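ingest -> validate -> predict -> emit
validate: passed (alphabet ok, no gaps, 286 aa)
predict: started
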Amino acid sequence: MPAPAEALPSTVNDLYPGISPERFGRVHERKVVVSLYHPWLSKAFAQAGAKIFLSARRAATLEKAKAEIKSLFGGEVDFATLDVTNSESVAAGVAAAVKRFGRIDVVIANAGKESEMGKKWGDFDPEEWWSTIEASLKGSYLTAHATLRHLIASKGYIILLSSTLAQDRVPGGSPYNIAKHSINRLAEWIDIEYCTQGVKSFSVHPGAVLTNLSTPFAQSLPDGGKEVFTQTSALSAWTYVRLTCGTEDWLSGRFLDVTVDLDELAKLKTKIVEQDALKNRLSLPL
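emit:
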């Protein structure tokens, strides 16, 4: 018997009725969203009424983003420069967000670093291999750790950036895949230990989207990634808006793929809950 399937069929590549911006209005008004800077994510939550606190390494990038978001949606936007792999830096950034806005309701831990694909793990320089793990896993852990008490206070949400590659066993790219597999378990553990205090956590595959991070890999593909990178940034951004507005709390602690229609996924709710599905499991010879 083959191992159980580990991925639901992808059904969407762009906005669909279940995540249409018109559906949400100002659903996140008075809420504070903390995230590493990502253009679509920031704009989607700002459009949904949230106050935005951004972070990145470069102040110039954040100044530009702040000005653009305010010009488009008004509202309140601020930022801090930080290094997601440094605990003191992350803690200082979170403290700045709380000082500015007084609370944190939603955290998007979208730290990550691509690794060279098609390269066996033994062929990596050890420092290079480990730096990929650090950027994704340590960065997500530090973000979750620094914001946890504020999310307990607000009964808030944390989304950890994962990937369908977490379940991929194709040779090559081991540090990235291993980091994402670990992030799935981190999201599950946050739910196990803090769900009774109101914290909701999700590990989410954001789709195959061309970004500064993914472009080098896309360019290494024969077609420039046109057949692989087929999703839009709006798909992940508005999926995150929906996941954090209270209707999908039953999915907390689970791995989600934005290319799966949330309304179709809801039809599987009974099976998902009964089987405790959408979590990493060891396949046994039953």
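The chain is about 40% helix and 10% strand.
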